[in-house]
Write a structure and sequence with these properties.
By secondary structure, the protein is an alpha/beta fold. It is built from 13 helices and 18 strands. The chain is about 30% helix and about 15% strand. The strands form 4 sheets. The protein has a 10-stranded mixed β-sheet, with helices on both faces. Bound molecules: 2-deoxy-6-O-sulfo-2-(sulfoamino)-alpha-D-glucopyranose and calcium ion.
Amino acid sequence: MNNILKTGAFITPVVLLSACGGGQQKAAVKPLNIIHIMTDDHSFQTISAYGHPISRLAPTPNIDRLASEGVLFRKAFVENSLSTPSRACLMTGLYSHQNGQRQLGKGIDTTKVFFSELLHDAGYQTGVVGKWHMQCEPKGFDYYHVLWDQGDYYNPAFKSPESNGKYIKEEGYATTLTTDHAIRFLENREQEKPFCLLVHHKAPHRNWMPEPKYLDLYEDVEFPFPETFYDDYSTRCEAAHNQEMRIDDDMTLIYDLKVSELKNVEAYKNEPNSKGLFASLDRMTEEQRKAWMAAYGPSNEKFIKQNLKGDDLLKWKYQRYLRDYLRCIKSIDDEVGRLIAYLEKEGLMDNTIIVYTSDQGFYMGEHGWFDKRFMYEESFRTPLIIRHPNTSTDMKGTECDLLVQNIDYAPTYLATANIEAPKEMSGASLLPILNGNKPANWRKYLYYHYYDFPAVHQVQRHDGVRDDRYKLIHFYGEKGEVNCNELYDLQNDPNELQNLYGNTNHTETQNRLQKQLDSFRTTLKVDEF
Ligand code: SGN
Ligand code: CA
């Protein structure tokens, strides 16, 4: 930050002292650069800065470094726990029903303003690399180098302005290639302009395929089982009983857990998605495939011989799931480190905001699940760490407990560029919080709404509100046929096992949250619930 005077305030455009002429003179100073790193399905449970027991066995030193030099948000949430809705929310600062992207496969309203367009118009150089995923072209970007749809882990195909709309296969691993393209954007940028770069990784999305160098990592580590691993959903609505995201019933041995040797075994011939694994293996180079088979072959053979059943099989599935997922995280953490090293080498750490987040949280076996979608904490919450160069020394390495949500990114980035956020944006800038100032009227409630039903994993539609302590969830069906509510006291029941809805000891809380939910529905003009 050589030529920028710290003003004390958290606004970037500042006054420069003129070197000659003796007086003070206003000069345009470059606003801060922005790097938004967003992984896909990264649980806060697997970032060691969050302190969860799983992450202690598989630390993430580079992501942790961002936390130790910045602010870690303990109560960061999404508004619809699914990829494309979350991405649409990032770009527009709007809830799903406002930006149109309610479901995974359709909806984005391209007439809505993306924050990238406003930054671009204000002179920022804008780029997005990695997963884009929405059913529209990247809007407001000088440069994009984006994966096809969900993207592949091995030798994925990317599209860029130079490829004339075609996806072109590149040799390598998705996480590394995405970082390569991020660094390429930075190398080729116009130095005099500020930049905003979105680095959107495919990992650790299903089916958790590790990088060749980490295929053996954690093989001897036994990960702890979550307290709710055997949740029987006894106090919950039908939705929790009817989902299809259980490790025991829905996680498959071939596609998810890579036991490719079962291909010709009668019982597994029709496993859903098994073709997906073989298509991924077919994409590999000979060398990649050799490394893959050398790592999985012997342990698969041992597993098949053991002929595990019931709880032993379930436990084996969980361990393989966690090992593969955490191997993918290891590559992410390395690549975050590589990007930071580049920024350091280029002297960019002092004028760049670095944000690390995920498109939503993920179940690491809690309630017996993988995947996301529900308004329960593991998938409603998302990791969020912000390293802002102007964060004061006493704020570095601190945690923030305010309720923040992914509708806040767009206003934060616009505020960074000193651009007024469009009135229709629902979120608020997080910049004041990064210097320890709690804005006077900070939100006390969050609104959540999940729409994608019927769909893979069969999670019922629901909306709800959460305050600092309580959560009210309303599940509904297409024609209102499912109408069931849940109320949780997160302070006394952090695992959300005791549904208190209808419990007369909690009538006041229930009514207060219901009133707030009604108010969100009215003011935000929600059209189904
Ligand atoms: C795919 C996955 C699902 C996952 C969705 C949404 N199945 O359909 O398990 O829930 O993506 O994920 S797979 O067989 O293709 O792996 S999201 O992160 O994009 O929202
Ligand atoms: Ca996701």
